[in-house]
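To whoever picks this up:

The nightly regression suite flagged Small EDRK-rich factor-like N-terminal domain-containing protein as changed. Nothing in the input moved, so I suspect the structure step. Input below, exactly as stored in the fixture:
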Amino acid sequence: MTRGNQRDRDRERSQARKTQSKNKDDGLTPEQRRERDKKALEEKISKKVGQGATGEGSNAANNSKGAGKK
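Regenerated output under the current build:
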């Protein structure tokens, strides 16, 4: 039962994935990172609020369905 070069290929693929993954060493201090994340979260929330104003009825319907289950 030989694996041939499968093990080597898997190692190469693993290395490639590691380089593509989110790198925490982005050159920012923890304070700068918090500020960046805070701004992104605020933008996301404001976007959700904007969508909620137009599609408020669908959210109310979903909430009423879940209200009976406990």
